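Sample entry (640 residues):
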Amino acid sequence: GVSTVLAENPFKAFWSNFERMEGYITILHLAAYVTVLTSMLRTEELWKRFFLTSLGASVIVALYSLFQLSGAFAINQGGLRIDATFGNATYFAVYMLIHAFLALYALARWARARWQQVALVAIFALESVLVFYSATRGTILGLAGGLFLAGLVLAFSRGAQPLVRKAGIAAVMAVLVAAGGFYAIKDTQYVVEHPILSRIASISLEAGETRFQIWNMAFRGFQERPLFGWGQEGFNFVFNKYYTPDLYQQEPWFDRAHNVVLDWLVAGGVLGATLYLSLYAILVWYLWRRGNPFASSERAILTGLLAAYGFHNLFVFDNLMSYVLFTALLSYITVRAVPPHAWGVPLKSEHLRVAVPVVGVLALLGLYFINFAGLQNASGIIEALKPHEEGIDTNVRYMKAAVERGGLGSQEVHEQLLQFVAQVRQLGIGSAEFQSELATYARDHFLEELQKSPNDARLLIFLGSFLRQFGDFANAESAMRSALAATPQKQTAYFELGLTEIAAGKYPEALETFRTAYELEPNFDQARGYYALGLIYAGRVSEAESNLLEWYGTITPDNPILLQAYLDTGRYTEAIRLAESRIALRPSEARPLLDLAAILLQAGRRLESVQAIRRAMALDPSFAPQGEQFIAEIEAGRNP
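Predicted structure, serialized as tokens:
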């Protein structure tokens, strides 16, 4: 809570966003969840029903993922890593991991009938296999390590039944054999070509180099604010400040360190991280202190689960569902470990008559102003981006309502607002006056959002790009220079600044900006393209072509930004040459031919433009009606 108040962006530290759904508001919800679980589920039978219900739900999710494996259902994030209904393979993996151990726990604690034992063993086996098919390496290692640890505990447990100890030894041997067998075949052609096995076989220190860089950035951020950290959702400030140009191949905006300890060191400083780790410590203490109520098999499985979950979190981060499952586990172990007399006495009836309506009213108010408002924002964005029969005014109404509501998802709403307005202008929807009023509305409200986090490079780049598109070059340049102050080595910020300088006709300045971005990391292909772009606008075409020849072995690389630079500077010969080169690279596509047709038309070579359109029509017959219209306009002396 203190870290939230002292955060770089207290508003976002409290509310988080739609993608992560974390923030201090979620911590408060989880605290309430633990309070409810530990207060209401006070008997073993209730906990049994609770966990078996969760296992039942996990089986449904597992069956859904099997349909993904078969190809009947699409994998939401693409590729081959199954994600069920989570939309993220990592979130799915940890969900399966926890429930695989819960199946083992239910087997040891509650299963009596043979059919129950068989069913729980089948659930464990299925969900363990699905962890593998998620191809989430940290979770796979966590599962193996957790089972290994649980097996060791069972094997050396005093007083455990011989069959239980043998099961522990079998688990240890199974993990060792599986690990050794995989290591022996990891370089075989089958493993190398297998999409899942090859990902697991790639585990190495070299493969983790990028992750280590991110961790180093997180640690530097922690050193800067060691006591209370940057607040939740504060890692993006650390990432931007300590960004290094050699990360150009990675995604541009990291909001997590992908290590739960480092994430909490950044979010809450040493105090916040210590409090988080204390949750694990208290559970281990409950499980292993003298006189604990857990049987050796239960203690082994729960210890293995904590180890597996903790190891998983060393390479990724928690999500809402894993938080819910972890706090449920925390609540169960606490209820089992703490004697009933230590929980105090129930409220008297006269107290309940006051407490129930007060809590009820507070809950309803919280639901409306906290939860319902966030739901409205989420649905509002979706509705704003959907086509409506009533026209663009309906989209604008939904978008404005989400903008002015505030609360959860506010930053995402404002980012979507800028993109929405830019698209309206690009598509030529509405009158010039309508577009201008909408642009002014978007700019003013985005500036209000920016006041909550004036040093957020992402927001500043969004603003600068938007202002450039609407011709406000002075303020766009100011925004981009502020962004560079927040992230001084991020090439994408230099690209946006350079494009703004070009739009304003400041070609020498743009060249120096692009040169700086290129020199930060010369291997970055996009930086090379923009450097060549700057040289072309500055009139130094021979130098640009010399660099292109050195970088790509040709002066006509497949780069659309160079094509636009040639057009903007009236160098039609070079533009046509580059367009023809792109056609040769993609001879079965109509789009490059249409680009050539547009360039030829702009160069005044109308007959050749018509010929290029006819070639495009031959490749793509669905384009024929529109192509005939273009040809008619050109032959009539007009430019379509």
